[in-house]
User: Which sequence fits this backbone?
């Protein structure tokens, strides 16, 4: 995931002005909240989170299909 430096917010600022953080998420999709000058929390648009989750599921399915095709002879032997 790429992080835009414009989307970094201190935890103090997020605590005091969460509506600003929410607007930033609406505009860019994600905001990283910093704690002690280190990235600590990620605020992400729910639609984007669902899309990324679906992509992960599709990747697993693609890998499974490839492994099944690669080892088809072994699976046929095991099925006997």
Assistant:
């Amino acid at each position: 995931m790429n992080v835009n430096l414009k989307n970094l917010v201190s935890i103090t600022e997020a605590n005091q002005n969460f509506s600003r953080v929410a607007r930033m998420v609406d505009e860019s999709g994600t905001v990283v909240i910093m704690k002690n000058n280190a990235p600590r929390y990620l605020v992400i648009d729910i639609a984007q989170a669902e899309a990324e989750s679906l992509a992960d599921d599709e990747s697993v399915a693609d890998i499974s299909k490839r492994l099944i095709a690669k080892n088809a002879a072994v699976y046929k032997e095991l099925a006997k």
The chain has a mean pLDDT of 83. Residues 46-80 form one domain. The CA atoms of residues 58 and 64 lie 10 Å apart.
